[in-house]
Design a protein that fits this description.
CATH topology of one domain: Rossmann fold
Distance between the termini: 40 Å
CATH class of one domain: Alpha Beta
Number of strands: 9
Strand order of the largest sheet: 3-2-1-4-5-6-9
Strand content: 5-15%
Radius of gyration: 20 Å
Shape: globular
CATH architecture of one domain: 3-Layer(aba) Sandwich
Largest sheet: 7 strands, parallel
Helix content: 40-55%
Length: 318
């Protein structure tokens, strides 16, 4: 049995991960900014300091753990109002991450699992699924900060002996999901026509239950040492297929218009949303063969299972 510290334990992914760790018989301490929201059985540690500026001094006396899984981050946001988005993302996602890693290493933690993002590599797959060793080309401040954190952690691990494991998920969905996926469900639920019927781009996604299961393996399996893994559901549906499946589970018709991709790009240029349209209609598939071969990991849930659970949760909120 391992003792795992999870930052962001009361968040969307954090709650799923903590539940999976507890189910597997591990002890869990949740490092959170404010009290409340952790699943039953998680010991709560509150550190409200900005970007973990006080985490070394605040480390609880006697807290010994085998691993830290670092989920907390400044996440990708639309219409960022920060005067310098790169600096804002770096302060949290790079500097804050390094402070937590240093405090963990000083207190005897042997493994640090950093939950990065596929955006640290690219926004599009260029015609073949993205592999862990593909040259990175992040396109926004969030992706650049995640890539910089990966590089800084690797250097820190090489210098100190801390075992750093990097995990890069694509879009994560599941009960309590927010942001774009929730907006898509809102639109389907309301019966709004969506211009997605002709979008044939395939997008890798990961159900939060699958990501939680993979992170348990990365936190506890000796074979994960110093590795970088891409994690996703099996298969990569088209945007249209994903929307139709979601509508079916919501019990709503899928009202999709077959708008050509070229028209969508033009609309994006006219409205100043070219980046959002490119992400919507561009292919982003990830290669998960490394985690499957190295750890023998297979996603325990199908995408259909994940969409069904997500739709059940959404209906319960209406």
């Amino acid at each position: 049995m391992s003792h795992v510290i999870v930052s962001g334990a009361n968040g969307f992914v954090g709650r799923a991960l903590c539940g999976a760790l507890l189910d597997a018989g591990h002890r869990v301490t949740g490092l959170v900014r404010r009290s409340g929201g952790c699943v039953d059985g998680v010991a709560e540690w509150v550190d409200a300091s900005t970007d973990y500026s006080n985490v070394a001094q605040a480390w609880p006396a006697g807290l010994k753990a085998n691993c830290v899984v670092h989920l907390a981050a400044r996440v990708h946001v639309m219409n960022d109002t920060a005067a310098d988005p790169d600096a804002a993302f770096r302060a949290t996602n790079v500097d804050g991450t390094l402070r937590l890693a240093a405090a963990a290493q000083q207190n005897g933690v042997r493994r640090f699992v950093f939950v990065s993002s596929i955006k640290a590599v690219a926004e599009k797959d260029g015609g073949k699924p993205l592999r862990e060793d593909d040259p990175p080309c992040p396109e926004d401040a969030y992706g650049r900060s995640k890539r910089a954190a990966e590089e800084a952690l690797t250097r820190f691990g090489n210098e100190t002996g801390l075992d750093v494991v990097v995990v890069r998920p694509p879009l994560v969905y599941g009960p309590q999901v927010r942001a774009n996926f929730l907006r898509l469900m809102d639109a389907v639920w309301r019966g709004l026509p969506l211009p997605l019927g002709a979008v044939q781009a395939r997008r890798s996604v990961v159900y939060v239950g699958n990501l939680g299961d993979a992170l348990v393996c990365c936190a506890t399996d000796p074979r994960a040492a110093r590795q970088c893994f891409h994690v996703a559901d099996s298969g990569a549906p088209t945007v249209a297929e994903l929307t139709r499946s979601l509508a079916r589970h919501l019990g709503k018709p899928s009202r999709m218009l077959p708008v050509p991709a070229a028209w969508l790009r033009t609309a994006g240029q006219l409205t100043g949303r070219s980046a959002q349209i490119d992400r919507l209609i561009g292919s982003l598939q990830v290669d998960t063969s490394r985690i499957r071969q190295t750890l023998g990991w297979q996603p325990p849930f199908s995408t259909d299972d994940g969409l069904s659970a997500t739709a059940d949760w959404y209906r319960s909120t209406q």
